[in-house]
Amino acid sequence: MRPERLKQHLTERARALGFDALAVTRPEAVPDLGPRLAAWLEAGHQGTMGWMETTAERRADPRTLWPEVRSIVMLGMNYGPDEDPLEAIRRRTKAAISVYAQGRDYHDVIKGRLKELAGVLASQAGDDVKVFVDTAPVMEKPLAQAAGIGWQGKHTVLVSRALGNWLFLGAIFTTAELPVDAPEGDHCGSCRRCLDACPTNAFPAPYVLDSRRCISYLTIEHAGPIPEDLRTGIGNRVYGCDDCLAVCPWNKFAHAAREQKLAARRDLASLPLADLARLDDAAFRALFAGTPIKRTGRDRFVRNVLVAIGNSGEPALVEVARERLDDASPLVRGMAVWALARLLPPEAFETLRTARVDAESDAHVRAEWRSRPIGAGTIREADQGRGPAARRV
Question: Given 61, 127, 134, 275, which residue is catalytic?
Answer without folding.
Answer: 134
